[in-house]
């Protein structure tokens, strides 16, 4: 009977599988196979303690995304470029797809684990958050756009409740609401002194925030269920998103004028866009590392703090109207960011 069903020698050929379970003190996402695999830009974070890992990731996020924000505003400061926000997103998605492909080819496991339908949804949300965000700069000045994006913590919390079934205590919700009040004060101040404040820009950036609320939670859930890698996520979501944007620009006839304009200013458009995309890709790597090590809420809190610093640099490098409302409201926002850090980081230890 054993020979008939091919069971001869089963005991001698049986493979043993060893499964190690992290202790309760280790904060690890289920899609990390081992501590040794957690590398960011060649840095093996597993060789450092948890606090050092956190500060390395924070430094990476601040460094690359501050440069990213500066280059983004620099591109839109080119005279005549503001109508071509969607084309910039197309170019950015093209670079991200290329970087993701290169990184994936350098890894041993090149299989696609997450279903294609899931990537189509993630790509749609990615197009929404990045495309609408870039386009909003044609109507809002950069500090106003950034301060709106600082509200991302609230929609991300709401998305976590509905998409992943997460729960938050009253202190977390209260801190997020109070932070939003400071951001609203900032926006009202900007509407009285900045000539390019426009209701259309507010609508665009609000829709971008709605997409932001869903995308992080959908990505986190997909990577946990299907054990997908970061490079796989970037490659497929941005390459599918590239097709979405390209089809849209071809349908509305917006590709030709954008290509013609950028061809006349290749250095200030494609040149800036390359470094803009490169620094953004590096920044994403550190954000994903934060999510893996400390969770999505901590990552959002860090990026919110980075956006506050971006506002300061925006006033330093670009000429803008300024009133006392800006530093006061920004101080209020930073106080609540520190409060969230205290509850989400220090409490961990």
UniProtKB/TrEMBL annotation:
The keyword Transport applies. It is a multi-pass membrane protein. GO terms for molecular function: 3'-phosphoadenosine 5'-phosphosulfate transmembrane transporter activity. It is found in: Membrane. This is Adenosine 3'-phospho 5'-phosphosulfate transporter 2. Signal peptide: none annotated. Pfam families: UAA (PF08449). Belongs to the nucleotide-sugar transporter family. SLC35B subfamily. It comes from the Eukaryota. Keywords: Membrane, Transmembrane, Transmembrane helix, Transport. The keyword Transport applies.
């Amino acid at each position: 009977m054993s020979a008939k069903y091919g069971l001869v020698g089963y005991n001698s050929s049986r493979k043993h599988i060893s499964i190690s379970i992290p202790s309760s003190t280790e904060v690890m996402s289920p899609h990390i196979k081992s501590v040794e695999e957690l590398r960011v830009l060649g840095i093996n974070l597993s060789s450092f303690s948890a606090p050092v890992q956190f500060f390395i990731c924070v430094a990476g996020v601040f460094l690359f995304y501050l440069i990213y924000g500066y280059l983004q505003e620099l591109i839109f400061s080119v005279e005549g470029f503001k109508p071509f926000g969607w084309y910039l997103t197309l170019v950015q998605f093209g670079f991200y797809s290329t970087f993701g492909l290169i990184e994936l080819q350098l890894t041993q496991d090149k299989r696609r684990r997450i279903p294609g339908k899931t990537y189509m949804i993630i790509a749609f949300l990615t197009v929404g958050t990045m495309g609408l965000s870039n386009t909003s700069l044609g109507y809002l000045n950069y500090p106003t756009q950034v301060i709106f994006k600082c509200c991302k913590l609230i929609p991300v919390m709401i998305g976590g409740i509905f998409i992943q079934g997460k729960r938050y205590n009253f202190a977390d919700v209260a801190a997020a609401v109070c932070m939003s009040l400071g951001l609203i004060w900032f926006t009202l101040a900007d509407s009285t002194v900045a000539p390019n404040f426009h209701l259309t820009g507010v609508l665009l950036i609000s829709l971008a925030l709605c997409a932001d609320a869903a995308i992080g939670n959908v990505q986190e859930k997909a990577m946990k269920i299907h054990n997908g890698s970061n490079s796989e996520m970037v490659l497929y979501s941005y390459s599918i998103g590239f097709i979405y944007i390209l089809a849209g620009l071809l349908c509305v006839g917006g590709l030709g004028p954008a290509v013609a304009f950028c061809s006349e200013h290749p250095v200030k458009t494609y040149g800036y866009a390359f470094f803009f995309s490169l620094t953004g890709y590096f920044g994403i790597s550190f954000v994903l590392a934060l999510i893996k090590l400390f969770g999505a809420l901590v990552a959002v809190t860090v990026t919110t703090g980075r956006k506050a610093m971006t506002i300061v640099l925006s006033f330093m490098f670009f000429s803008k109207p300024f009133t006392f409302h800006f530093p006061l409201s920004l101080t209020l926002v930073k106080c609540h960011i520190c409060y969230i850090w205290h509850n989400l980081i220090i409490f961990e230890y």
